[in-house]
Recover the amino acids of this structure.
């Protein structure tokens, strides 16, 4: 075939003003792009993947995964778009192809953005040591919904439609939904308050008003508390954040107040010895820090000795065990030393002489 024949063949029009030459050039652009991308993915990308798999960090693996799932598909699509743009096509077809490319680009960009956002949230959640995977999943789900809604509006706007009416409709609908589900939305909002403020977490023992128990699960709408009696209390997050909650899980030590009463007939020397005995017993108990121990005051029926000490183990059972050991040791020591505990009594004197005593036992 001569040069003139080849030239004539290439100038043959196939569709509109597109010649065989234009079609071949378009095919070469597309095939060349595909070949370059295939070589990159087969040779370079695989080697990079092997290299990053040996590094201790996960960031490089994540970036390669993002490139493979979002950037490469865009490059393939871009190659096809450039090849088609070389041809003479109708305005409607060109507009349709452009719209498809725009929508695909927006979707891939949103996917990449959400992947990065998910990676950052989940990794920062581990470092912040919050409520674990449940909280991070909730944040990620909410972020996905918001981002995709914005992306859909952006796509509609890029397709040439008026989104003002759509936004107005969403605004009215949102107000109606917010009013109808005000309580639910309040619980959801307070769930995120609990997540970020961290007043308690799963496994903590809390006291809220007359309720007390261990946090079993923090949900989006309600929190489940296992009470000491064994039943499951379900409390809305709004009630929890609005109440005064005492969290005993993070106590470093528990404070114990000990009040003793000895009879008025106790001599000062023995009373002084009683105070020293109380101090010695508390100081000698393992896991206990003595704050103070004194003869406090003259009571109605007894001489009051008051002591304050701290138990290092914050667990309630351990705390009660220490109190029991201290109390029993004081009782045994007072019995050995002949120090008598007081109980409510009243002595009646007639003409300065004791005629009798009436015990007034107060429950």
């Amino acid at each position: 075939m001569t040069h003139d024949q080849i030239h004539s063949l290439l100038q043959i029009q196939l569709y509109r003003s597109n010649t065989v030459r234009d079609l071949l050039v378009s095919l070469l652009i597309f095939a060349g792009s595909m070949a370059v991308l295939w070589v990159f993915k087969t040779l370079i990308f695989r080697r990079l993947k092997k290299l990053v798999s040996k590094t201790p960090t996960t960031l490089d693996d994540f970036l390669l995964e993002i490139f493979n799932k979002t950037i490469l598909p865009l490059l393939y699509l871009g190659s096809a778009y450039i090849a088609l743009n070389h041809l003479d096509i109708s305005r409607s077809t060109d507009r349709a192809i452009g719209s498809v490319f725009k929508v695909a680009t927006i979707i891939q960009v949103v996917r990449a953005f959400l992947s990065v956002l998910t990676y950052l949230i989940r990794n920062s959640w581990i470092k912040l040591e919050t409520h674990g995977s449940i909280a991070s999943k909730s944040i990620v789900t909410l972020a996905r919904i918001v981002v995709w809604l914005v992306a859909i509006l952006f796509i509609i706007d890029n397709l040439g439609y008026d989104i003002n009416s759509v936004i107005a409709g969403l605004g009215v609908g949102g107000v109606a939904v917010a009013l109808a589900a005000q309580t639910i939305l309040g619980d959801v909002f307070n769930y995120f308050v609990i997540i970020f403020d961290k007043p308690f977490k799963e496994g903590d023992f809390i006291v809220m008003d007359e309720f007390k128990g261990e946090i079993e699960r923090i949900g989006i709408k309600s929190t489940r508390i296992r009470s000491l009696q064994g039943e499951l209390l379900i409390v809305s997050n709004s009630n929890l954040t609005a109440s005064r909650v005492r969290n005993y899980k993070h106590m470093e030590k528990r404070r114990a107040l000990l009040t003793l009463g000895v009879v008025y007939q106790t001599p000062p020397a023995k009373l002084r010895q009683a105070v020293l005995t109380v101090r010695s017993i508390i100081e000698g108990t393992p896991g206990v820090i003595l704050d103070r121990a004194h003869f406090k005051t003259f009571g109605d029926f007894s001489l009051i000795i008051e002591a304050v000490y701290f138990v290092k183990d914050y667990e309630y059972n351990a705390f009660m065990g220490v109190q029991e050991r201290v109390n029993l040791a004081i009782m045994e020591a007072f019995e050995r030393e002949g120090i008598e505990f007081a109980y409510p009594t009243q002595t009646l004197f007639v003409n300065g002489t004791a005629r009798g005593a009436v015990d007034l036992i107060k429950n």
Q: What stands out?
A: The chain is about 60% helix and 20% strand.
